[in-house]
């Protein structure tokens, strides 16, 4: 049994990761400030039993860790760092503060992992590519900082700066860390509140409403089921090379947002309609669409042995089934 810390472990991806780690028999410690947990805290406690929860900002982890009975100088074998503002709409209230939150969180986790001798998996984002080359994003490509300053750019630039400081830190001291860049994660428990498109489409289809497609719907994405992402996180911890970054995104799921809308309609509301609109009309003037992006996942596939398996239709069906029996994410 390993002692494992998951920051942001009560979030969408984190809760699936914690579930897997618990099922594998590990002792799991979660640090989460509960700012964007997708389902209520009391339900998470019930669904993730035997998890040690420390409710605080990740930047304050060392202070809280040593001043509360919940976290008495715990040794960790592994740390997964997921705590961060996230989502095209979820990041907007943090405009101007994302840089500090992401960087302070990253330094706190880096130093915690170093002091406790733990392996670290740092969850970054595919946004750092700024769209790659015509949407294709590979680890070997340059990262592009765009001219247009948006909240989305602040999120991407902060994650990229955190990645770079982590790599350089691991090069100059005896520390082991691996970086993961997920692409459009989807699955049960994801809330529409962060502005994620799949929960919104499914909610609208279930209500018999037209699906709101932003722009002209030609944006390219590759949705990846959260269970495949969790597989990748575990493999990265086990087999990832120190200071290396790995894309986790399912290239087989590459599609346009309009195709996603049509697939949702096929599954839930055959004959239903779509309506085109500007995302700013829903989320306000700070909202910005991501560039086209889809992964070159060959590095994770060959080096980690990652095998993303769940297709778009199965992901839609899985989320639909979850939302049908669970109204907590329907707010
Ligand atoms: N969901 C995606 O499609 C996606 C894509 C790429 C990268 N990511 C990354 O994956 C990670 C998890 O994303 P998610 O979709 O599960 O988001 P989420 O909002 O569901 O989960 C994040 C969790 O972290 C907590 N949190 C946020 N800031 C914190 C802080 N400063 N201190 C302590 N806890 C904090 C929140 O309360 C929440 O429970 C994030 O780092 C995000 O950048 C997500």
Summarize the structure in words.
The structure is a single chain. With 331 residues, the protein is an alpha/beta fold. Helix content is 39%, strand content 16%. It is built from eleven helices and 15 strands. The protein has helices spanning 12-23, 41-47, 61-67, 98-116, 151-172, 197-206, 226-239, 257-268, 280-283, 298-304, 312-325, and strands at residues 3-7, 27-31, 52-54, 78-81, 119-123, 136-137, 177-182, 185-186, 211-214, 220-222, 224-225, 245-248, 254-256, 274-277, 294-295. The strands form five sheets. A seven-stranded parallel sheet has the order 3-2-1-4-5-7-12, sandwiched between helices. It has a two-stranded parallel sheet with strand order 6-15. A two-stranded parallel sheet has the order 8-11. Helix 4 links the parallel strand 4 and strand 5. It is globular and about 55 Å long. The model has no long low-confidence stretch (mean pLDDT 93). It binds nicotinamide-adenine-dinucleotide. The site of nicotinamide-adenine-dinucleotide has 30 residues, from helix 1 and helix 4. The site of nicotinamide-adenine-dinucleotide (NAD) has 30 residues, from helix 1 and helix 4.
Short synopsis of the structure:
The chain is an alpha/beta fold and 331 residues long. It is built from 11 helices and 15 strands.
Instruction: Quote the beta fraction.
Output: 15-25%
What gap, in angstroms, lies between the N and C termini? 37 Å
Q: Which consecutive residue ranges, at least 5 long each, have pLDDT under 50?
A: none
Question: What small molecules does the structure contain?
Answer: nicotinamide-adenine-dinucleotide
Give the H and E element order: EHEHEHEHEEHEEHEEEHEEHEHEHH
Summing up helix and strand content along with how strands pair, one would put the structural category as alpha/beta
Number of helices: 11
What assembly state would you assign to the polypeptide chains in this entry? single chain
Please state how the strands of the largest beta sheet are arranged side by side.
3-2-1-4-5-7-12
Give the overall pLDDT as a whole number. 93
């Amino acid at each position: 049994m390993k002692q494992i810390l998951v920051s942001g472990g009560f979030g969408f991806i984190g809760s699936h990761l914690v579930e897997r780690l618990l099922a594998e028999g590990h002792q799991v410690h979660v640090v989460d400030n509960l700012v964007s947990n997708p389902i209520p805290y009391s339900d998470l406690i019930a669904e993730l039993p035997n998890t040690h929860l420390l409710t605080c900002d990740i930047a304050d982890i060392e202070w809280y860790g040593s001043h509360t009975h919940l976290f008495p100088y715990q040794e960790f074998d592994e740390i997964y760092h997921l705590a961060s503002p996230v989502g095209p709409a979820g990041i907007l209230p943090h405009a101007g503060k994302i840089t500090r939150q992401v960087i302070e969180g990253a330094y706190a986790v880096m130093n915690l992992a170093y002091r406790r001798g733990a392996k670290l998996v740092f969850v970054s984002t595919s946004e750092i590519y700024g769209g790659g080359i015509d949407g294709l994003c590979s680890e070997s490509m340059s990262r592009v900082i765009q001219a247009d300053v948006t909240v989305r750019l602040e999120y991407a630039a902060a994650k990229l700066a955190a990645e770079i400081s982590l790599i350089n830190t691991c090069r100059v001291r005896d520390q082991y860390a691996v970086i993961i860049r997920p692409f459009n994660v989807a699955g049960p428990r994801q809330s529409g509140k962060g502005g994620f498109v799949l929960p919104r489409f499914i909610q609208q289809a279930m209500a018999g409403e037209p699906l709101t497609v932003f722009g002209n719907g030609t944006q390219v994405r590759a949705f990846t089921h959260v269970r495949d992402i969790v597989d990748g996180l575990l493999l990265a911890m086990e087999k990832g090379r120190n200071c290396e970054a790995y894309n986790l995104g399912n290239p087989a799921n590459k599609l346009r947002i309009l195709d996603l809308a049509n697939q949702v309609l096929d599954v839930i509301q055959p004959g239903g309609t779509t309506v085109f609109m500007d995302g700013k009309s829903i989320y306000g003037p700070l909202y910005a669409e991501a560039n086209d992006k889809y992964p070159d996942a060959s590095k994770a596939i060959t080096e980690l042995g990652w095998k993303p398996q769940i297709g778009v239709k199965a992901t839609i069906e899985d989320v639909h089934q979850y939302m049908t029996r669970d109204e907590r994410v329907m707010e």
